[in-house]
Structure formats: C-alpha cells, structure tokens
Automatic annotation (TrEMBL):
Cofactor: Mg(2+); Mn(2+)
CDD domains from the UniProt entry: RNase_HII_bacteria_HII_like (cd07182)
Organism of derivation: Candidatus Taylorbacteria bacterium RIFCSPLOWO2_01_FULL_45_15b
Name of the featured protein: Ribonuclease
Alphabetized GO MF terms: metal ion binding; RNA binding; RNA-DNA hybrid ribonuclease activity
Family: Belongs to the RNase HII family.
Annotated positions binding a divalent metal cation: 22-23, 122
Keyword Membrane: no
Length: 211
C-alpha cells in the first residue's frame, strides 16, 4: 500500500511563500503588543480568500473558528503562523515603533525566513533591513489575505492572554476590554490605580495628576 496519501503536503520553495505580518494591541492601555506572522506555503482554494476581514471587523466566535482552520492548514503543511509578544514594560522603555521592529525580527528568526522572502506588512511595521523584498502596505489587513490572517492569529493569541490576566486583576474588567481604554477600565484605574500590566507611558497624564 502506498504511503503517498499519508504524507503531509510538500512545502514548496520559499520564493513561492506568501507572508503577512500585522500587530494587535497598539492602542491598549494595558497588556502586551502582539505581532502575528502568517506564512502561506502554497495556494489554497478556499472562499475565505475572497471574503476575508481584518480581525477588528470579525466577531470573537468567527476569529476562533478561523484560528482553528489555520491550525488545520498548519497540520496539513499548507501554512504556518507564529506570534511575538512584547511586554508592557518594554513598551514603556523603548516605545511602540521599536517594539514592533523587535517583534518582527523575532518572528523572522523563529520562522527561519530566508533573506529573499517576500514579506507583506501592515503599515507601521518593518522587517530587518536584510529582507529587501519586504513591503509595508497601508490598510494591508483590509486588502491582503495573509496580513488579515496574521491579525486574526495575533488577536486570538492576545485575547486569550488577557482572559487569563483578568483572573489575576478582575477589578479592571480585562475579560471585556482586553486592555483597551473603555469607560469601565478608566474608572477602575481611577479607583484602584495601575497594575503591573498597565502601560505607564500611556497613563502618564493620570499618574501625574495623582502623584
């Protein structure tokens, strides 16, 4: 009996890969910045490629469903993905732009991307200079499927972390606001002060007024 049907798809040469990168959590008051990378090894015939949406325009239930689909694609050798997490402490120390570059550098290394890989990034992100074929695209998460998929991977990953964090600091309602500056979140900061995962540079005005 042939073992052909038991093998995963053979991954093609890197020049055929489609690589998308996006970030989640840039404007949050608390929690990490998470950058996602999605690598499509070969063309997949799926309706998702003509109807994809950025993670911000996708429901939580739909994001989880898509994440599970991506896991299946990875298992089948059709795609792969990863995330890089930047802590609030490092964000306060170096700023978001530098943190974004650090995260993308980590992902390029983790995914073992050759220097001639074609990397498509949402605007504001950049890969190391050695990746000469990189391209930053304004609203790339709305026009490039792989960038949108990277945003979904990053969003699901970050939301899950914030759900866990909520159990440690329930007074800030992280399960609902995932670190963003909702009214309930701001009221909690006014009542309880900041916790270890708050970005102090983002809350500087509040901290100065209460010092």
């Amino acid at each position: 009996m042939s073992s052909k049907n038991n093998k995963k798809s053979v991954i093609p040469m890197f020049r055929h890969w489609r690589i998308g990168v996006d970030e989640v959590g840039r404007g949050a008051l608390a929690g990490p910045l998470v950058v996602g990378m999605f690598v499509l090894y070969k063309k997949i015939k799926h309706p998702l490629f003509s109807s994809f949406k950025d993670s911000k325009k996708t429901s939580k239930k739909e994001r989880v469903r898509l994440y599970e689909l991506f896991v299946k694609w990875r298992h089948d050798g059709l795609a792969d993905f990863a995330t890089a997490r930047i802590s609030p402490k490092l964000i306060d120390k170096t700023g978001l732009s530098t943190c974004g570059r650090i995260a993308v550098h980590r992902l390029c290394k983790r995914m073992s991307l050759p220097a001639k890989s074609r990397i498509l990034l949402d605007a504001g992100l950049e890969a190391p200079a050695s990746y000469v074929l990189q391209k930053s695209i304004v609203r790339g998460d709305e026009t490039i499927a792989e960038i949108a998929f990277a945003s979904i991977v990053a969003k699901v990953t970050r939301d899950r972390e914030m759900q866990r964090t909520h159990r440690l600091f329930p007074q800030y309602h992280f399960a609902d606001n995932v670190g963003y500056g909702t009214l309930a979140h701001r009221k909690a900061v006014a009542a309880f002060g900041v916790c270890p995962i708050h970005r102090r540079t983002f809350l500087r005005a509040y901290l100065q007024s209460n010092s």
